[in-house]
Design a protein that fits this description.
5 helices, 20% helix
């Protein structure tokens, strides 16, 4: 079954591109699309670009980890320029070109059927004016129809389940892309004292056993 045609977008009074109403989106698109954004950190949170398809962590997170480790060889700025800055409007989906230079087992496991990341095309506005870039920050992302945000921080990618707020858990760039992550939003809820580990990779060291107190003797 092919994908439904791109929905028409209308212009918001403030100049932003307004998403189509639910009634105007084909049924298949409502069911299948998991909407997300790929973002840079900002002093108040993040700002990034919209990605329409397959935005859940078990899809995006392995691709982002592999891209950082192999294609971009740890260059977070080059990665952000490609993922956040390069699309004219937004991304339709992320693709296997993010796996360039990855080992064959990684490419075989993470290949998603798309040869390359595909920018969104074919959108129009009702008044015929150019479609603006579909960007989101930590506020507009929560107020929109997005489910997930992926913030490309220097120390790792922060996975934000937007139903739980504008913050998430940080997954270090050195984590194995083949890790079995979870799509459960509650598992990505920030913990009170830490945002440093993904829920499926958390390893807690055993607390050292308390030594028995030495008995006091009188002299």
């Amino acid at each position: 079954m092919g994908r439904p045609p791109a929905a028409r977008f209308s212009r918001h009074p403030l100049g932003q591109v307004r998403p189509p109403t639910v009634s105007s989106i084909p049924y298949q698109e409502i069911v299948l699309a998991t909407r997300s954004c790929i973002a840079r950190p900002t002093p108040t949170g993040f700002e990034g670009i919209y990605v329409h398809w397959d935005g859940y962590p078990t899809h995006h997170l392995p691709l982002l980890l592999a891209a950082h480790q192999f294609r971009f060889k740890g260059d977070i700025e080059a990665m952000a320029r490609f993922l956040v800055d390069s699309p004219d409007v937004s991304w339709d989906h992320l693709g296997a070109d993010l796996l360039t230079y990855a080992p064959e087992p990684v490419q075989q496991r993470l290949g998603n059927g798309y040869d390359a990341c595909r920018p969104t095309t074919g959108l129009v506005t009702l008044d015929g004016s150019p479609v603006q870039r579909m960007t989101f920050d930590e506020v507009s992302a929560q107020e929109s129809w997005l489910s997930w945000a992926y913030v490309l921080r220097p120390e790792g990618v922060e996975v934000v389940s937007l139903q739980n707020g504008p913050r998430g858990l940080l997954v270090g760039w050195d984590v194995d892309p083949l890790t079995a992550f979870t799509d459960d939003p509650e598992r990505w809820r920030p913990r009170p004292a830490s945002r440093s580990q993904a829920p499926t990779t958390t390893v807690r060291k055993a607390e050292p056993r308390a030594q028995p107190a030495k008995s006091a003797t009188r002299r």
